[in-house]
Structure formats: structure tokens, C-alpha cells
Write a structure and sequence with these properties.
Distance between the termini: 39 Å
Helix content: 10-25%
Strand order of the largest sheet: 4-3-6-7
Largest sheet: 4 strands, antiparallel
Radius of gyration: 14 Å
Number of domains: 1
């Protein structure tokens, strides 16, 4: 069972990185693809921005992603990821409805000077992204 969970987590992490990397490469405007929602382009989820768009805080080399969202068995944040402009996944964290908050922390490698994309995936309201340039 553990191997299956690890396989699923790894698959989700790789898929998130590949999807963001391909969307960024394919278009300078990922916000208009309808695949990834942002605070500025929430698509059909206009009233859901506050609880779904991930917030990014940087303190030195530490990046914290927070999604201010309820965590119930019916509605929760499934996953965060932190991805560079070229699609490199710097980290990801999977949540369960039992988690009290959707907060994840990552350490930046030395020399990172690029755009970062924080993603937050909701089980009901799709994939959300916030962009930050370091």
C-alpha cells in the first residue's frame, strides 16, 4: 500500500511540473489557457479566489505556500507544488482532509533567480497558481 501511495505522489508531482512547464513554454500567458486558474484570471471560479489562489511568502531561502481553504472530507486542498520557470519541481506536498491547514515549506537551492510558480489543487475547484519573480 505504501508503494502505491508513493507512486501516486510521485506521479502527481511529475505531472504538475510537466503541465506547468509545458503551459509556460507554450504560451507567455498561462492565465488564459483555462487549465490553470489565477487570482487575476479565475475563470468560472471568480468567487473562489480568496480560498484557492496560493499565497507565497519568502524568508531568506525558505518559501512558504499557504492556501486559506477549509479542510473537510468533502472539500479540501489536495496538493501544493513549487515549480521554476523551466518546469523544475522544487518540491510538493500532498494533504489530506485531516490536515488542519494547507501550508507547505520549501528550501530554495543556491543560485535560484527565476520565476517561481506555486500551485494549489482543490478537489472541487481545480488547479490554481500564483507567480512570483525572485
Amino acid at each position: 500500500m505504501t508503494d502505491r501511495r508513493n507512486f501516486i505522489k510521485t506521479t502527481l508531482t511529475v505531472a504538475s511540473g510537466m503541465a506547468i512547464g509545458q503551459v509556460v513554454k507554450a504560451s507567455e500567458s498561462v492565465h488564459h489557457t483555462g487549465i490553470i486558474y489565477t487570482a487575476n484570471n479565475p475563470g468560472q471560479w471568480e468567487k473562489k479566489v480568496k480560498g484557492h489562489a496560493p499565497e507565497i511568502a519568502i524568508d531568506g531561502k525558505t518559501v512558504t505556500i499557504t492556501t486559506n481553504h477549509v479542510m473537510t472530507s468533502q472539500h479540501y486542498i489536495v496538493r501544493h507544488s513549487l515549480v521554476t520557470e523551466d518546469g523544475t519541481v522544487l518540491g510538493a506536498m500532498t494533504f489530506s482532509p485531516k490536515d488542519k491547514k494547507a501550508v507547505s515549506t520549501y528550501e530554495l537551492p543556491d543560485g535560484i533567480t527565476t520565476k517561481l510558480y506555486a500551485t494549489s489543487f482543490c478537489n472541487k475547484h481545480d488547479l490554481w497558481m500564483t507567480e512570483l519573480t525572485i
